[in-house]
Each structure stands twice: as structure tokens, then as C-alpha cells.
Design brief:
The chain has about 425 residues and is of the alpha/beta class. The chain is built from twelve helices and 19 strands. The radius of gyration is 22 Å and the shape is globular.
Length: about 425
């Protein structure tokens, strides 16, 4: 039985939650392997909308074990709020498993995130201010706090003291903010320990045993390929590895257990925050995509930047992730356009680039080279088979498929879990 990695192919917000939900009844585990509560998934079930931030999408499927892997940074207060919200709506959250090795976001991480971003001014990255970057920085600096530390007060206090020794100097002398008390942090973290304990596990071992037993395990990325700290549009990226390889380091499962990589590609492009975006639109067409596609952040509520589909980015995602299947989402949003532009290459100072430029400066200056495809006016939201799609819509999908270099196996034609066209079975074909 397969280990399946699910990633975003662009800058996030492609619809990974829907794709996870599509597979939800056929997988046994859903693992979040990177990021924190700085990204969100929206899942629509029987007309009800669920916005998930820290929790894996599998939490909504009654037969799935949702797992927060060691590669995630966890704001425990936010975790409890999200669990409480689902409990009130009748969702069973008792199956959740959390890696003992996952790192914890503390209040000093969020404080530093916000004051640093303000301090940067025009050079700001566009973070969500939720402490993700500072928590990952502490992890790499080996002064981070892990979930397991909450169960040894002596070690916890030592780690908090070591972390605040430097951070308080920064807050006082650089940012002119008050120092944070060690006791305040230790007390808060210890208060979480009793409720958290039943969820804590050796998730690497549990996932390995599940795969050995023939279970289907889905590894779900937060953020997306171009926000990956190594392979994205650095420095306008997240602080973790959101590409498929991150599933292994972020869950403790080796690459030999991964059988398939599914990437989610929106039929147009969006991004939130700062950074280069070659196909970005600043006109009525951009506003049309934003309003029609309801392009506002699930976690932040920020309006997303919008643009036409970029197949240079699609080809890059295919290559760095080893994509076997694409899920093309929000195709219905393009209905009603006479022509649908698709970026097939870049012009950088008069030189054509069919692949991502090797350096960031060239990517910043890239101008899209478009091919225009005929649009369609028919409502495709009720289509459930390939043959039901208008011919020009089929041509658009086939053109994109040829450009990105991997098959499009599923097409989303609406926000609901059933509003899809399945061309190839994501688990069997």
C-alpha cells in the first residue's frame, strides 16, 4: 500500500485541503509534516465550510488518524482552540497524534516575529506574525523547545532560560520592548501538558508500522513549492521544506516508502505576502479572479495577489517534487472568459527562459510570455466526467498538461468535495 505525498505546486492556497478530503475515505493516516498555523486549508463537506490551520485535513474524516509530524512547529494554544472549535461542531478529534519531537511555538516567538517584521519596514518578508520563523530559527540554533520537554520541568526551565537570555537582550536593546519573564513562559507551557499528553506519540514508529501493515498514509504539505525555504522564491518563503522531500525529514519516514507525489495546481495563480510574481495582474482581470475565486487568506484574511497560470512554475514543481499526478483546481473560475492566457516562458532582458531562471534577480525581472487559449461560457460546475466538459475547456487542460510535464488526474470544478472530475485514480492508476 502506498505512501503518498501531497504538495502545493505554486505559492500555496491551491486547494490541498480539498484534495486531501477527496482521498480521505481511502487513506488511513494523514500527516502534516511542515509549517505551523501560518497556513490554512478550507474544506467544504455537505455545504459546511471548515477552515483548518494547524490540524491535518484528515481530522475531518472519521476513519483517518491525523498526525502532526516532527517537522511541524506547534502553537499549543492555537491547537487547543482549533480542537475545541471542531468538537463544538461534532467532529471527533480524539484520534489526533502529535510527534514528541515537534517543536513548540512560544509567546516570545510570536512577539519577536511581529517586532522584527515592523523593524524591517520596506524590507519586510510578509510573515503572518505567528512565530513560525523564530521557532524554526531556535530549532536550527539548538535552543528550541520540543513537545517532549513539557514533561520534564527542569529541562524545560533550562531551555527557556537559555532562549530568553539572548532574546530579552534583543527586545530591550534593539526593539525597546519589555523583557519576558522565564516563569511566565514555563508556567504557560506546563499548563498545556496534561491535556496534550494523550496525543503525544513516537509518530515515526507508528507511521512505519502502519506502512508495514499495508495502510495508506498521506503526507500533507503546508504552504507550497515556491514557498519552500530551499527551493522557493527566497527570502520570500516560509521557514520549512514544503516540497515532497520534506515529507521524509518532517515525519521520520524514509523516501523508499513514498510511492506517489500529487501536486495541486490552481487554474490560475495567487500568492500572499511579498516577493516576485511574474504573471501578477493589477487590473480588472486580476480583480475578477480575486472576487470570483474568493481569494482571501484562510488564516490571515488578507486579499491574495492574483495572476494567470504560470506553466514555468508548473514544470519546476514537477521537477523538484517528482510529481506523478496533478490535481487542477478552480477550473470553473475561468468560465466566461473569451481568451485564457497561459504563461509558457519568461522574457528576461530579451532572453527567453523556458525554465525557472537560475538566480533570483532574473526571476524578479521576468516578464511572462503568454499563449492565449479560447475560453468557454458553459457552466462546468455540474460536470462529473471528462466528456461533459466543453471542447475548449478540455483543450485548456490538455495544453496545461503538456506544458507541465505530468498528467492531470483530477479536475476541480467547484468548492464542494463532490465537484470534481476524476480522470485517473490517485491511488491505483
Amino acid at each position: 500500500m502506498p505512501g503518498i505525498v501531497l504538495v502545493g505546486a505554486q505559492w500555496g492556497d491551491e486547494g490541498k485541503g480539498k484534495a486531501t478530503d477527496l482521498l480521505g475515505d481511502r487513506v488511513d493516516y494523514v500527516v502534516k509534516f511542515n509549517g505551523g498555523n501560518n497556513a490554512g486549508h478550507t474544506v467544504v463537506i455537505e455545504g459546511e465550510k471548515y477552515a483548518l490551520h494547524l490540524l491535518p485535513s484528515g481530522i475531518l474524516s472519521p476513519n483517518v488518524v491525523p498526525v502532526i509530524g516532527n517537522g511541524v512547529v506547534v502553537d499549543i494554544g492555537v491547537l487547543f482552540e482549533e480542537l475545541d472549535g471542531l468538537d463544538k461542531r461534532g467532529v471527533d478529534t480524539s484520534r489526533l497524534r502529535i510527534s514528541a519531537n515537534a517543536h513548540v511555538i512560544t509567546s516570545y516567538h510570536t512577539t519577536l516575529d511581529k517586532v522584527t517584521e515592523r523593524f524591517l519596514g520596506k524590507r519586510r518578508i510578509g510573515t503572518t506574525g505567528r512565530g513560525i520563523g523564530p521557532a524554526y530559527a531556535d530549532k536550527m540554533n539548538r535552543v528550541g523547545i520540543r513537545v517532549q520537554d513539557l514533561y520534564d520541568e527542569s529541562i524545560l526551565r533550562q531551555k527557556v532560560e537559555a532562549a530568553l537570555d539572548v532574546k530579552n537582550q534583543m527586545l530591550l536593546k534593539i526593539y525597546n520592548r519589555r523583557a519576558i519573564e522565564v516563569d511566565e513562559i514555563v508556567e504557560e507551557l506546563l499548563s498545556y501538558a496534561p491535556r496534550l499528553k494523550p496525543m503525544v506519540a513516537d509518530t515515526s514508529l507508528e507511521l512505519s508500522q502502519a506502512l508495514d501493515a499495508g495502510k495508506n498514509v498521506l503526507f500533507e504539505a503546508g504552504q507550497a513549492t515556491l514557498l519552500d525555504v530551499d527551493h522557493g522564491t527566497y527570502p520570500y518563503v516560509t521557514s520549512s521544506n514544503a516540497v515532497s522531500a520534506g515529507a521524509c525529514t518532517g515525519s521520520g519516514v524514509p523516501p523508499t516508502r513514498v510511492d506517489r507525489v500529487i501536486a495541486i495546481l490552481k487554474a490560475y495563480a495567487t500568492r500572499v505576502g511579498e516577493g516576485p510574481f511574474p504573471t501578477e495582474l493589477h487590473d480588472d482581470q486580476g480583480e475578477f479572479l480575486r472576487k470570483t475565486g474568493a481569494e482571501f487568506g484562510v488564516t490571515t484574511g488578507r486579499p491574495r495577489r492574483t495572476g494567470w497560470l504560470d506553466t514555468v512554475v508548473g514544470r519546476y514543481a514537477t521537477r523538484v517534487n517528482g510529481v506523478t499526478d496533478f490535481v487542477l483546481t478552480k477550473l470553473d473560475i475561468l468560465t466566461g472568459l473569451d481568451k485564457v492566457p497561459v504563461c509558457v516562458a519568461y522574457d528576461v532582458d530579451g532572453v527567453r527562459h523556458d525554465e525557472m531562471p537560475v538566480n533570483q534577480t532574473d526571476f524578479h525581472h521576468a516578464k511572462p510570455i503568454y499563449e492565449e487559449l479560447p475560453g468557454w461560457w458553459e457552466d462546468i460546475s455540474n460536470c462529473r466526467s471528462w466528456d461533459e466538459l466543453p471542447a475548449t475547456c478540455q483543450a485548456y487542460v490538455e495544453f496545461v498538461e503538456q506544458q507541465i510535464g505530468a498528467r492531470i488526474s483530477v479536475i476541480g470544478v467547484g468548492p464542494g468535495r463532490d465537484e470534481v472530475i476524476v480522470r485517473h485514480d490517485l491511488l491505483k492508476d
